Amino acid sequence: MSTPLMIEAYNLSKQFGDFLAVRDVTFTIPKGEVVAFLGPNGAGKSTTMKLLTGFVAPTSGTAKIAGIDVQADRIGVAEHLGYLPENGPLYPDMTPTSLLKFFGAARGLDRRKLTDRLEAVIAQCSLGSVAHKPIGKLSKGYRQRVSMAQALLHDPEVLILDEPTSGLDPNQIRGVRQLIRELGQSKTVLVSTHILQEVEPVANRVVFIHDGRIVFDGKPKDMLKGGKSLEDQFHSLTAQPA
To answer: Within the chain, which residues score under 70 in pLDDT?
Structure first.
């Protein structure tokens, strides 16, 4: 049997006024793959992720999560999808525990499952020491872990993570990378980044976007062919408009 496709983008485009942010983007990700969505700032990574998650409607094209059309059934998609936006919404007066209970209730988790999942994500994201402290008093690293915990709370099959290590220190980055590697053993993960060092430690495939278009799709080692470093390849893929 063929591996089912968990993330599908077909000819996705998004126009804001006269600006075409995403141009005819097509790629698919099968179950169990961890893919780095790489590109410079302003390339269209975040917009594409918003199209895939249903937060933004496409000007044209189709997105599917776990075989479900995002525009046709956003509620159905949400059951299979965990999404970490670049600047996830957090309530500073709430604690991680109270915030996760709030999100769990909003997702319709019953009390027993919510209790089980709450314990699981607090352990998975190493939040035990701050679980009852106000989020507003936590470091950025811990706030990022809280955001990750809410994305994992309902145990989704698909994770879309937008710049999950942005603004973190080296130790925090290492912790997030390790978590992504662990999650990739059981989930399909699309993680966006513009940091080259993020690619090889976490992903077995790279989808590179520049100027709103896909300009490379392959394994990280394929970017190094011809003796080029990742930095050299990054520069060559972004030197000219797509």
So the answer is: 1, 227, 242
The rounded distance, in Å, linking the Cα atoms of 57 and 154 is 24
User: Among 168, 148, 171, 170, which residue's Cα sits nearest to residue 160?
Assistant: 148
Give me the pLDDT at residue 231, please: 81
Fold of the domain spanning 5-86+156-238: Rossmann fold (3.40.50)
- Identify the pLDDT of residue 216: 93
- Check: CB of residue 173 under 8 Å from CB of residue 165: yes
The two tokens of residue 103 are 């999100």
Exposure letters 32-51 (e unless 16+ CB within 10 A, then b) = bbbbbbbbbeebbbbbbbbb
CB 162 within 8 A of CB 86: yes
Helix (H, G, I), strand (E, B) or coil at 241: coil
Domain positions in the chain are 5-86+156-238
* DSSP 3-state percent helix, strand, coil across the chain (nearest 5): 40, 25, 35
Question: What one-character DSSP code corresponds to residue 75?
Answer: H
Backbone φ and ψ of 186, nearest 5°? -130, -5
pLDDT, residue 77, reads 96
The C-alpha atoms of residue 93 and residue 135 are separated, in whole angstroms, by 6
Residues of the chain with pLDDT > 70, as a percent, come to 98
